[in-house]
């Protein structure tokens, strides 16, 4: 279920809380939005569960940060490496982030897809966590690899 726009900054589901000036955190009710993406849905075969979406306004650039729990990137036997995860991130940008933006009427200059092997607080260091990040630019209905 969608909640009303808050101050014109976002259209979101779930609880709304301010992280820092210019950034809004959307704590999502996963059952209402989407369950884990099945292993067959991603090129690497790993499972990804949406943890949260962050709307981050910095100067004239709006970033949408899609943070996924992906336990298979943890160090150990069967680890999904950064190189293998790249195709997963592209697919999530294209097949999940862009439709999500359309459904919730969100606009962004940049999309960041991040993977974490355990839940971490955004912006808080966790030396034991494994995290992968990729940036994309939404353009003409597709995701284009971009830089941070």
Describe the structure in brief.
By secondary structure, the chain is of the alpha+beta class. The protein has 2 helices and 7 strands; from the N terminus they run ββαββαβββ. The radius of gyration is 15 Å and the shape is globular.
What's the topology here?
Layout: E1 15-20, E2 23-27, H1 30-33, E3 49-58, E4 61-69, H2 82-103, E5 110-116, E6 131-139, E7 142-146
Parallel strand pairs: 4-5
Antiparallel strand pairs: 1-2, 2-3, 3-4, 5-6, 6-7
Task: Describe the overall structure.
The protein is of the alpha+beta class. The protein has 2 helices and 7 strands; from the N terminus they run E-E-H-E-E-H-E-E-E. Strands 1-2-3-4-5-6-7 form a 7-stranded mixed beta sheet. The N terminus is likely disordered.
Keywords:
globular; disordered N terminus; single chain; 148 residues; seven-stranded mixed sheet; alpha+beta
Quickly count the helices.
2
Total beta-strand segments: 7
From the spread of the alpha carbons, the general shape counts as globular
Give the strand order of the largest sheet, numbering strands 1, 2, ... along the chain. 1-2-3-4-5-6-7
Main pleated-sheet profile: 7 strands, mixed
Instruction: Classify the secondary structure makeup into a structural class.
Output: alpha+beta
- Give the strand content: 25-35%
Order of helices and strands: EEHEEHEEE
User: Between the first and last Cα atoms, what is the distance in angstroms?
Assistant: 32 Å
What are the segments in which pLDDT stays under 50 over at least 5 consecutive residues?
1-34
- Helix coverage percent of residues? 10-25%
- Please state the average pLDDT score: 79
